[in-house]
Amino acid sequence: MVRNTRSKKLALVVIPLALCLLLLLWGLALAQEDGQTAEPTITETYRVAINDVGDAQIEDTIKYSEQDYEGMKQVITDNPTFLTRLYTTERDIAEVLNFDTEMDDANRQVVITFDTPGYSYNMKDSWVIYGITNKPKKESGRTIEFEEQTDINNEFSLFTDQTLKTRTVYELPKKARNARYNKEEKQVEYVMPESRASLGFWSQNRTPLSVIFGILALLFAGLMAFVITRKTIEAPAPSHQVTPTTPPPSTVMEAVPEKRETGVCEKCGRKIKHGKKFCTHCGAPV
Amino acid sequence: MSKTIKLALVIMLALLMAGSGTLFLIAMTHPSATYDPSKIKLDVNLHTRNEILTCAYKVYGDQNQNQWVAKTIIKNTGKIPMYDFKIWYKVRDFTDWTSGEEYPVISPGETVRDYCWPALDGEKVKQITTKTPVELVLKYEYKGLKKPIEDYKTIYLLGRNDFVFSSMKEEDRLTFADNFDNKLFVAAFITPNEKTTKSFANGIASGLETRTNDTDVYQTFLRCFNTLRTHGVRYIQEPSGFWTGSEAQYVQYPKDTIERKSGTCIDLAICMSALMEAVGIKSYVALVPGHAIPLIQIPGSGDIIPIESTFIDQEYALTHFPGTTSPNVTADECVGIAQSEIDQYSSEGRLVLIDPEYWWQAGVMPSW
Fold first, then answer.
1. Is the overall model pTM greater than 0.90, yes or no?
2. Could you say which of B9, B232, B255, B266 has the lowest number of CB atoms within 10 Å?
3. Domain containing residue B253: CATH number
């Protein structure tokens, strides 16, 4: 009994201690890991909006610290082609159109915009954006996001060693569906509905549809002409119930021809239309 | 028929007639399912690089590099889709037709960017010694087209030893590094596995441990300098900017430098770099204003050691830089001189360091 109680007490002390030690070690490992990952000094958002025919509108927003932004602004003021020259090389012929750079002082960021036609390729079964080596960080519907952190020393860091965190966002067309990242092929794929001009239902049934709707149009036109040419008959005034107490004179006046119109042949009992002098059924004079 | 009924009927029939008429027009104006290639409208624009550096001809054949030789922008400007578009390229006399890229459908309004990465024939490229015009031929076809359409443009293949330092326009060059925009191609000149180079390097490093022993690695570097001097290598100057129209230089391969026993600063730097790499020592080439310096990395300490390779030519050192060194112009002294140069240019931000191993891994393979 004594031994059992001692063992239990020992276990109650040792187990929490071991757990605490494990937690401590885990925390230290995490702290060390954090220490190894440098905090980004420049953040970039590279937004690629793709339209229905695969053309891209690109907006590259590079956000700096206050000091770096002032430095960049000064350099660009002195050398307006400092960044643009990177996008106007022989390599970028016909791929960088409508290029523009804007300094956003309020947010301490440089915003570069340009268009690239044919960014996405139509492979019939799907559309493909090639050359994406990283796995996506987020995939939601028609938006796919990638994140990358790199050490740079180039124009964008004014040739100083800095850590750049890049968030790349692909915004696929509104009609896009089944968007996914293909890890093996390192590409983003999505499906677009068949376009109007892609020989769909209308194109495939052009002749019968033309005939059907042509005939229908003519038929309705004919019917309309027929209806228009028909004589309009004055609609008879509605008969009212005559109340014996207060009969309005006009109502009584209109009721008389109604009675005359519906005369009855005294010989055969058939109805005789107003104005007839003989019964149309038995020939008896009215 | 009463007036009201008649009016209602007329309105209803008019609406039905208008609807049917509209649908009739839509059906009539829609493209026919019968594929009619004569109705296809295309904009095909062929863009080419003006000059191809044959020293790095392998790079142009590698799709992973962004060094296309030609680029075609195809836009369907018509109203109907185009099917089975295929495109091929050929550098006349230097390649066969490329395998051909296929685009199953190009919708109206869609643009396709297609690139040409030709696998140039190494043996033929080797024969080019001066800037040579060649024809780049484009061929394409699509469903329903009776005969493929061809287009061509003239491009220029530079001589195997021609090196253009920068592809940037002069007015766009703002930094020192901009003058060496093509620095990656220097790695193609560093040919450690070439027979003559390898054999020369093995002779230098014999008896030394060049992989991990710091002292031996440093000794190999000094021995390389001394062996080239003993071999009779002299420093020569080369006029720059000749037939390419841009800032260019005739650059020798290590084999040429060893066999001709002479070379410019960049030839000597490339030669020493190749000899060091041939025996497993990590090397670099530094480009500073008007000059090039070879360097090695000591494996254990990680120190980077440069050497003034033009002083291999003892006479040149003594006549042009009198008093800078002892009359023997020792390799150790040349290390010190080069270190001062590197420190100075590095602090001024006027130094470009080329790491051949990095560029080889990135696909800029030695040409021969």
1. no
2. B232
3. 3.10.620
